Amino acid sequence: MKAISNVLKGVTYHNPQWGESLYELCRRATSRHIDRPDEIINQQVVYMINSEMHAPFAAKDACTCLKRRLQMDHPQKQYLAIILTSKVLQECHAALGAFQGELLQEVAYILRTARSSSPAAARTRQVAMDVLRHFGSAGGEAYRVARQQGGGVPGGPRIEAANRDPADIAAVRASLLDEI
After folding, report:
1. Which of 5, 39, 85, 169 has its CA 20 to 30 A from that of 161?
2. Rounded to whole angstroms, how far apart are CA atoms 80 and 88?
3. Entry pTM
4. What is the CA angle 139-90-77, rounded to 5?
5. Distance from C-alpha of 65 to C-alpha of 88, rounded to nearest angstrom
6. What dihedral do alpha carbons 9, 28, 120, 126 form, nearest 10°?
7. What is the DSSP letter of 34?
8. What is the DSSP letter of 122?
9. Distance, CA of 82 to CA of 177 (rounded, Å)
10. Which residue did the predictor score with more confidence, 17 or 19?
11. Nearest to 49 by CA among 5, 91, 2, 3
12. Within 35-115, where are the H helices?
């Protein structure tokens, strides 16, 4: 049943060797019930992305799948998703192409929007910072973009922060109040 729903959703990755789709592997790799990253599952994800490198829309599907896992609310899931994303960015850079920047921005959004002060959230922020540092100027640029766009709610629309005149803000507010 799940395979049929994935086909209808447009999930194109399916590896007959393991019998699971990319989405299912990513879900297993980022389960909150595991304490540390599972290298075998992470390597299966990398292999699957690299094997589908020449398929149309493969990079976009992989990026979408990883971004969904990065946008989870649970800090343990985010931690595991960052580790998986880092591995994919390092080993699948040819397959991802232009989507590397999008994934780095999602990692930067996690760094900017981590809400909890729990040890798991602190570990998640630390790993996100390490990943951005590892990618050097691309990671720094992703962090600058995340900071300029304001973090927002993970998974929600990113609202761009604008440096506006206070009089302009008051005029917009007044016009909105008039409409009500």
Report:
1. 85
2. 12
3. 0.72
4. 75
5. 12
6. -80
7. -
8. H
9. 42
10. 19
11. 91
12. 39-51, 58-70, 75-91, 93-96, 100-113
